Amino acid sequence: MTKRFEGQLALVTGASRGIGAATARALAAEGAHVVLTARTAGALEEVEEAIHAAGGTATIAPLDLIESDSIARLAGAVAERWGALDILVLNAATLGSLSAVQAIDSKEFAKVLTLNVSAQQALLAAFDPALRKSKRARVVAITSKVGRQPRAFWGAYGASKAAFETLVQAYGEEVEGISNVRVAVLDPGATRTEMRARAYPGEDPASVKPPEAVAEKIVELVASDFASGHVEQVG
Q1: Segment 137-153, tens digit of pLDDT
Q2: Distance in angstroms (rounded) separating the CA atoms of residues 76 and 70
Q3: Mean pLDDT of 122-128
Q4: Is 180:135 a contact under the CB 8 Å cutoff?
Q5: Between the N and C ends of the chain, which has fewer C-beta atoms within 10 Å?
């Protein structure tokens, strides 16, 4: 049986745990060679080993997305080794502290915006040439509904996700008519992740869906012929 992404290259950010790790495993199971990025090398190695044990292939690329030139170096290495990039999953993000708007720490807010917005623009800019070389490139941006539905004490994170959505959707409109790149925004909803546990410390993890459910939706989305600007929420 032919796997849906056989011969394709995928890159998943924040791939060391949670939705990113589950997505990397799911894409590899469908034949993609997956480049795994995150800050923690040890956790990435565990995901890589799981992919290899299941018969897939992956390459780890430990890096901090907010470090100067780290994204450009990674894009250069990917272009030199593989040429085209077929799937880009923008999953890495930071929650920051939940606080009233007037109590937001300016230094922490700057860090949230740097990773959740500025680094995402840098990823799109750096990997745009490789995405355009693909016959069927798909970009999936992982968001949160607080970017569209403001919630008390979530102002910093919500503002970063609102900016992130605007950024990636603008990119999608810019490239849709002149390339094979298509961009979608996916809201995973309540999911059993470390970030969720930090935000809702009293919640029973078993009461929300596992990351694998979101990964399955991402695989289905990447395999479909959506138009840029597609927005979807996982139930």
Answers
A1: 999 999 999 999 999 99
A2: 10
A3: 98
A4: yes
A5: N
